[in-house]
Amino acid sequence: MAPSRYRTAEVDGFKVFYREAGNPNAPKLLLLHGFPTSSHMFRDLIPLLAGGFHMVAPDLPGFGMSDMPSRAAFDYTFDNIARVIERFTEVIGFDRFALYVFDYGAPTGFRLAVSHPERVTAVISQNGNAYEEGLSDGWTPIRAYWEDPSLANREALRAFLTPETTHWQYTAGVPEPAAVSPDGQNLDNHYLVRPGADEVQLDLFGDYKSNVALYPKFQDYFRTHKPPFLAVWGRNDPFFLPPGAEAFKRDIPDAVVRFFDTGHFALETHAAEIADAIRDFLK
Predict the structure, then answer these.
(1) Would you say 1 and 22 are in contact if contact means Cβ atoms under 8 Å apart?
(2) How far, in Å, CA of 166 to CA of 181, rounded?
(3) Which residues contact 49 (CB under 8 A, 6 or more apart)?
(4) What is the DSSP secondary-structure string of 7-71?
(5) Strands 28-32, 5-11: parallel, antiparallel or unpaired by DSSP?
(6) What letter does residue 264 receive in the DSSP assignment?
(7) Longest CA span, the chain
(8) Do 2 and 28 meet the contact criterion of CB atoms below 8 Å apart?
C-alpha cells in the first residue's frame, strides 16, 4: 500500500490542506468530502486504491485543516468553494482526473465538471445527489430556511451541529453501529466547535438551495457528455435516497449503480467493497 503524504497548497492566498498518495504518473482521482467531515473520511479508501491511482483529497474551504477565513473575508457559498477547489487542481497540476464526490463534494465537483468537462474522465458518486427525488424529508427544516431565511429558521438548524447529530449521521441506517469508529465523528465535532464554524455551516445550509437550482444544469452535463459514471450508495442514507442514485441512469443510461447495506457515511463500513467497485469500474 502506497503511503499518504499530507500537504498544504497556496491557492491565491488561501491555504488548502490535502492528502496525496500514489504514483504521479498513474490516472488521477480527486476525492471531495462532504458535511461535516474532511479528507479524513477517505483514510481507509486511499490506501486501498493508491497502488493504481494518483489520489488527492483536499479539505474544502472552511473544513478540516484548510483555511477558514472570517465570513467578512470570504463568502461561504458553494460557488466560491468550487472556485477555490478548481484553482487548487490547477495549482497542483491535476489537469485531467476522475471525480469521487460525496455529499457537499457532489455539488462542488459537478460545478467543476460543468465548467471544464474536458478535465473530468469519470465520476464516482457516493451518496452525492443531483436529483430532487434523492432528497429525503430530512431536508425539511433546511428547506424552511431556504424559503424563509429568518433568524428563527436559521437558529433551528443549529441542531444539525451538535455531537449527538454527528453521531446519528454516522450511525443511522448502519445495521451494526458498533462497527463505526468514533474517530471520524469526534474529529468532525472538533472542527465544528471552532470559533465561527457554526455560522459558516449555517451559511452553507442556506446556500445549499443554489445546488438544487443547478440540478437541471448538472443533469444537462450528464446527458451531453455522458461521463463514465458509478454510483456507490449507502441505501439507508437518511438524507439522500436510493431514487437519487437510480436517477443518474436517466441521463447516463450506461451508469453503474451499486447499493450497500449501510448509511450516509458508507466508507466507514464498506471501504473495501467500494474500493473493489471503483477498481472494476475504472480499470
Answers:
(1) no
(2) 13
(3) 22, 29, 55, 275, 278, 279
(4) EEEEETTEEEEEEEES-TTSPEEEEE--TT--GGGGTTHHHHHTTT-EEEEEPPTTSTTS----T
(5) unpaired
(6) S
(7) 52
(8) no
Burial label, 14 (beta-carbon count in 10 A; 0-12, 13-18, 19+): middle
- Return the pLDDT at 210: 98
Peptide bond into 36 cis (omega under 30): yes
C-alpha cell at 78: 458553494
Round the average pLDDT of the chain to a whole number and report it: 97
Nearest alpha carbon to residue 56 among 131, 130, 112: 112
In this structure, which amino acid lies at residue 26? A
Q: Which of 133, 136, 156 is nearest to 146 (CA)?
A: 156
Q: Which residues does the annotation mark as catalytic?
A: 264
Domains assigned to the chain: 5-282 (3.40.50.1820)
Residues in the chain: 283
Reported as a single tens digit per residue, the pLDDT across 148-182 is 999 999 999 999 999 999 999 999 999 999 999 99
Query: What's the angle, vertex CA 181, arms to CA 176 and CA 186, rounded to 5?
Result: 130
**Tens digit of pLDDT for each residue in 17-44?**
999 999 999 999 999 999 999 999 999 9
pTM: 0.97
